[in-house]
Design a protein that fits this description.
The protein has about 350 residues and is α/β, with parallel strands linked by helices. Helix content is about 35%, strand content about 25%. A six-stranded mixed beta sheet has the order 4-1-5-8-6-7, with helices on both faces. It comes from Flavobacterium bernardetii. Its EC number is 3.5.1.28.
């Protein structure tokens, strides 16, 4: 009988030890419920953030080495104080919060990753204010957050004295994510920045807040909203988490294989009337976009009309333009999907890193 009891105790100890050895990650989908986050170009931040987070979780849950906790899995409002409590109670090894950026100008684009810090200058502090502003939607927020005013740059977050090791781990993970954004997704790299973010201050483990891109930029919003774009983001963030664990713990978990795909973005239906030398689209005169066999490569959108010569397009020829919504969409070539994949690679080599394939209409 004693041997049986001893065996049970040993089995429980081994099981408990195995459970403790799992790498715990909290995945935090920004905003939710009554807090939509940024809403631009037909995209809503809370939905994109949740979709990407659930995809990340699905990848990581296939690994027995990981234990995943979500701050939300549906469209519900979760106060910042509760998000931090979820992570702290879970005793997570890493906290990853996913968001989308926005600006009053449609021009900015690119991905950035934020870690906790005290910098309060420039556009990045405006981002910090926007992410902290959710506090004001909570009841009794002045008591909960000890009077913290997210709109006042002179208000001090109650910064804990973060251990240098924890901060460096956050920076290492943020840098890895940015490297993948730049090298695997060919997104504009806006870098890693330290900012005063309440939710990162209140969590006691390494953590980052990832801004996937700017919803206020039309091309980038289409990328973020697309199925391929959301899949691409989730794959590289999941891979970054796995590699972070390996580097931190000295493990050899095999990272997920990346299957990066360019989004196929459908343009809105347009009523077209052909004339002798031009095309009329919704009563707007444009230069004719040649009819073809399915797809085109959109290389840029501008409020300025350019002459369609190679000198204006980094040496590219076969450029067409569509005037719409007060601006000009410029396209490189046209043809089948296979043809346009090659054209897309050429356009990116010529400097059009945000180029993407669209369906011809």
């Amino acid at each position: 009988m004693k041997k049986i009891v001893l065996y049970i105790l040993l089995s429980l100890s081994v099981f408990s030890y195995a459970q403790e050895k799992k790498f715990k990650v909290v995945l935090d989908a920004g905003h939710g419920g009554k807090d939509p986050g940024a809403a631009k170009n037909g995209c809503i931040e809370k939905h994109i953030a949740l979709d990407v987070v659930l995809r990340i979780g699905k990848i990581l849950e296939a690994y027995p080495e990981f234990d995943i906790k979500y701050t939300r899995t549906t469209d519900v409002f979760i106060p910042l104080v509760d998000r931090a409590k979820i992570a702290n109670d879970f005793e997570a090894d890493l906290f990853v919060s996913v968001h989308c950026n926005a600006s009053v100008s449609p021009k900015p684009y690119g991905a950035m990753t934020l870690v906790m810090g005290l910098s309060r200058t420039g556009m990045n502090f405006e981002i910090a204010k926007a992410e902290n502003a959710v506090i004001s939607l909570e009841e009794n927020y002045k008591e909960k957050y000890e009077g913290f005013d997210p709109n006042n740059p002179n208000t001090q977050i109650g910064l804990k004295i973060m251990q240098e090791e924890t901060l460096m781990q956050s920076i290492d993970f943020a840098s890895a994510v940015q490297n993948y954004f730049k090298n695997s997704l060919q997104r504009k790299d806006l870098g890693m920045h330290q900012q005063p973010l309440w939710v990162l201050d209140a969590t006691v483990m390494p953590g980052v807040l990832i801004e996937l891109g700017f919803l206020s930029n039309l091309q980038e919003s289409k990328y973020m909203k697309s199925e391929e774009g959301k899949s691409n983001y989730s794959q590289i963030i999941a891979r970054s988490i796995i590699e972070y664990k390996n580097n931190l713990k000295g493990t050899n978990t095999i990272p997920n294989v990346l299957d990066i795909k360019e989004p196929i973005i459908t343009e809105p239906e347009i009523v077209v009337v052909t004339t002798d030398s031009s095309t009329v689209v919704n009563s707007t005169i444009i230069e004719a976009v040649p009819a073809g066999s399915g797809y085109k490569v959109q290389i840029s959108f501008s409020t300025k009309k350019l002459e369609l010569i190679p000198e204006n397009f980094n040496g590219l020829t076969n450029i067409s333009v569509l005037e719409i919504n007060g601006g000009y969409k410029y396209y490189y070539g046209e043809g089948s999907m296979e043809t346009c994949k090659k054209l897309l690679a050429e356009a990116k080599l010529k400097g059009y890193k945000s180029a993407f394939i669209v369906e011809s209409k």
